Amino acid sequence: MHPCLRQGKLNGGWDYRPLGRLDIGERNKSMNSVDIKKRIGILGGMGPEATALLMMRVIQLTPAEDDSDHVPLLIDNNTQIPSRLKALIENTGADPGPVLQQMARQLESSGAQALAMPCNTAHYYAGQIEEAVTIPLLNMLELSAQQIAEHPLKPKVVGVLGSPAVKKIGLFDNVFAGRNIAVIYPQNQTLILDAIRAIKSAGQDDKARRIFQQACQELSDSGADILVVGCSEFSIISDAIPGSLNYIDTVDVLAQAVVDFASGVQ
């Protein structure tokens, strides 16, 4: 079982592991003897709590006995990036692309050897970011889709819990299309947006958790073989997913990719 694929207690097969207790297996055992030296630049601030969450999950996934065993991170927690939702949903906001390009260039010039961006919606601008630098962007959408497609159970339908912008621009549809995996979304995207905004405003908001739980059950009832937590605000409350449902959290996938790249693990 890949460490980022999870299942609740009620179904057989995969073991359930609470957040921060992922079983990273033999791969990370072998990393104890590897010097972690590669610096990773984080395009952060979308939102700041999601950025901190990625950092914490990287720390949790890193086998370490001392400070020097951890992944060196250069974090640009730029909360002034233009709103992705206003730009992509409302068509009223400034283009975030140029700001993300400038951040990427600054991180590369500061010594980053790869980039990570803990915002699913912002991956709409992944191509622009990659054009601006000579170092790789660890694409959390592509990595998540690849992991699901390669799983022995071969899921045929994924249910995406992401921002309405993700659905509108077809980000997950595009990455799963070439893998013969269908994508479905919660019907009431207005409620989904309300929940995301509540988390941005108040953190682990009770109303947001209820909306999130209902959306999870709706997707499962609609035929999703596995859920994809495709919004980093929802990653903050992913412990609210009903225990019987299979899911993958894109922030977990990205965190593991950061650890692997920094460690030289392929």
Would you give an account of this structure?
This protein has a five-stranded mixed beta sheet, sandwiched between helices. Strands 3-2-4-5 form a four-stranded parallel beta sheet, with helices on both faces. The chain has two domains: 5-139 and 253-263, Rossmann fold; 141-250, Rossmann fold, CATH 3.40.50.1860. The radius of gyration is 18 Å and the shape is globular. Helix 2 (48-61) crosses helix 12, helix 6 packs across helix 8 and helix 9 packs antiparallel against helix 10. The protein has 266 residues and is an alpha/beta fold. It is 44% helix and 12% strand. The relative contact order is 0.18. Strand 8 (226-229), helix 11 (232-236) and strand 9 form a beta-alpha-beta unit.
Task: Write a brief caption for the model.
The chain has 266 residues and is α/β, with parallel strands linked by helices. It has helices spanning 25-29, 48-61, 84-90, 97-109, 126-132, 140-149, 164-169, 171-177, 189-202, 206-221, 232-236, 250-263; strands at 5-6, 40-44, 73-77, 114-116, 137-138, 157-161, 182-184, 226-229, 247-249. A five-stranded mixed sheet has the order 1-9-8-6-7, sandwiched between helices. A four-stranded parallel sheet has the order 3-2-4-5, sandwiched between helices.
According to CATH, what is the topology of the largest domain? Rossmann fold
Low-pLDDT regions: 8-34
Can you identify the CATH class of the largest domain? Alpha Beta
What is the gyration radius calculated from CA atoms? 18 Å
- Total domain modules: 2
